[in-house]
Hints:
- By secondary structure, the protein is of the alpha/beta class.
- It has helices at residues 7-15, 26-30, 56-63, 78-89, and strands spanning 3-5, 19-22, 38-39, 43-46, 49-52, 70-73, 95-98, 105-106, 112-114.
- Strands 1-7-6-2-3 form a five-stranded parallel β-sheet. Strands 4-5 form a two-stranded antiparallel ribbon. A two-stranded antiparallel sheet has the order 8-9.
Amino acid sequence: MTKRVLPQEAASLVEAGWTYLDVRSVPEFEKGHPAGALNIPLLNFREGRMVPNPSFEEQVTAALPKDKPIVVGCKSGGRSLQAATLLAAKGWTQIVDMRGGFEGERDPMGRVVVPGWLDSHLPVE
Length: 125
């Protein structure tokens, strides 16, 4: 089971040397992201829809050793949980998923139920 943390704890881990892996698409990442984050999209926009990035695992392998501590984040927490679970299953040993993502986890009515990195007033680029 993938460990999940809130944005404040994720920020503390990053401050302690963990890498923040943002798995949002490049356009989402370019609009703003946690300071120092590495962007490797789990999904990409193609022809107006999101499709899996076929080289996701290969790109992560090239950028991050399997023993590197990683915090995985996305927009609201769905893709990051998927990515963190996949990476843990593929042998990454120190990996956590950040709940709330960059913009916050929302209920069906659109209300924020878990504040994201942005709403937590954490460092952004």
